[in-house]
């Protein structure tokens, strides 16, 4: 089933458009308030947009009249399924009966619904949980049952709103592996703040910021060659936007960041971005000796522990250094330092 989304919700400042191909998983990425959950709510029929349309496999689910007659299909009739952080299982029903609820609601008899439920519990490795009620389940177990319940209803479109955000870090990897298996042929839109969810689950990503689509494309392309500040930070990369020069990018303040042009190289004077890894950045307390190609005076805004390393943030830029370097350089928020990066470590391409 393919989906077309063209919607605007004026009160929330959301105006987005994108498509989901049959069997494709699309991840919606963006900062808090970007419009991701609003978009899911419109797709699921929980919120009516001010304008636009939602089309699923050539069936118009929502239309506000600009492109045809007004139409709004109720949530229960859309054959979409929404799975959020909270499993929202019925507390008075067993796991098996929770999963059977979907098939029963679409008209299947009790025997057939229970058989379907048993099959999906087996699919998510939760057969042994069939007779337990939600209060007897751990967070990870409850989310497995919720996944089975969503899929047992045979949704044409599955909507996932940060389904692993509330889980213990020890549980999330197993559930991520489960999703990777069961979503292989399921048309899905997932909202996530975790880079691994996007990398392992999504075929494409759509990046929202300020209620607008600022970037979209194949997951590997967007996360390795981001063109928006959020996508770069999400992927753990530095991004400097400006205009292309023969050998780099000129920031709005006139500073040129030298780098290696992509293939094809951006046109001189056109919008371009320079991207480089925090691990490629050296931090100096004062101006470095010699004549490095890229030396950027910055103000430290945050120190973030990363295992054996510390990520030194300076606004939108970051450098990864050792704990010993933090102590030696007396790094702390408010410190004035210089970020140095070799031109060979900087990739430049059109925005």
UniProtKB/TrEMBL annotation:
The keyword Endoplasmic reticulum does not apply. GO terms for molecular function: ATP binding. InterPro entries: AAA+_ATPase (IPR003593), ABC_SmlMolc_Importer (IPR050093), ABC_transporter-like_ATP-bd (IPR003439), ABC_transporter-like_CS (IPR017871), Mo/tungstate-bd_C_term_dom (IPR008995), Mop_domain (IPR004606), P-loop_NTPase (IPR027417), Transp-assoc_OB_typ1 (IPR005116). Residues 289-350 form the Mop domain. Signal peptide: none annotated. The keyword Kinase does not apply. Residues 2-235 form the ABC transporter domain. PANTHER family: SPERMIDINE/PUTRESCINE IMPORT ATP-BINDING PROTEIN POTA (PTHR42781), SPERMIDINE_PUTRESCINE IMPORT ATP-BINDING PROTEIN POTA (PTHR42781:SF4). This is ABC transporter ATP-binding protein. It comes from Nocardioides humi. The lineage of its organism: Bacteria, Bacillati, Actinomycetota, Actinomycetes, Propionibacteriales.
């Amino acid at each position: 089933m393919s989906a077309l989304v063209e919607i605007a919700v004026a009160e929330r400042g959301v105006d987005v458009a994108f498509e989901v191909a049959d069997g494709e998983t699309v991840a919606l990425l963006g900062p808090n308030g970007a419009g991701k959950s609003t978009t899911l709510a419109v797709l699921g029929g929980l919120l009516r947009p001010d304008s636009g349309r939602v089309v699923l496999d050539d069936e118009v689910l929502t239309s506000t009249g600009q492109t045809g007659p007004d139409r709004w299909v109720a949530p229960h009739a859309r054959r979409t399924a929404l799975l959020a952080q909270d499993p929202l299982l019925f507390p008075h029903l067993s796991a098996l009966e929770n999963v059977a609820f979907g098939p029963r609601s679409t008209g299947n008899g009790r025997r057939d619904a229970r058989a379907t439920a048993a099959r999906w519990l087996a699919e998510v490795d939760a057969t042994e949980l069939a007779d337990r009620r939600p209060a007897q389940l751990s967070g990870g177990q409850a989310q497995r049952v919720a996944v089975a319940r969503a899929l047992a209803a045979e949704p044409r479109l599955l909507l996932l709103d940060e389904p692993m955000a509330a889980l213990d870090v020890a549980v999330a990897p197993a559930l991520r592996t489960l999703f990777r298996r069961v979503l292989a042929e399921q048309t899905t839109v997932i909202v996530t703040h975790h880079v691994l969810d996007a990398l392992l689950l999504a075929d494409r990503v759509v990046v929202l910021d300020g209620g607008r689509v600022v970037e979209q494309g194949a997951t590997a392309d967007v996360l390795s060659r981001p063109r928006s500040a959020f996508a770069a930070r999400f992927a753990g990369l530095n991004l400097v936007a400006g205009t292309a020069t023969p050998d780099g990018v000129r920031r709005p303040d006139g500073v040129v960041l030298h780098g290696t042009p992509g293939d094809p190289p951006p046109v001189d004077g056109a919008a371009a971005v320079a991207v480089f890894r925090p691990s490629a950045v050296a931090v100096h307390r004062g101006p470095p000796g010699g004549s490095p190609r890229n030396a950027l005076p910055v103000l430290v805004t945050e120190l973030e522990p990363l295992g054996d390393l510390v990520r030194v943030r300076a606004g939108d830029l970051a450098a990864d250094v050792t704990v010993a370097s933090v102590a030696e350089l007396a790094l702390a928020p408010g410190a004035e330092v210089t970020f140095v990066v070799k031109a060979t470590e900087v990739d430049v391409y059109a925005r």
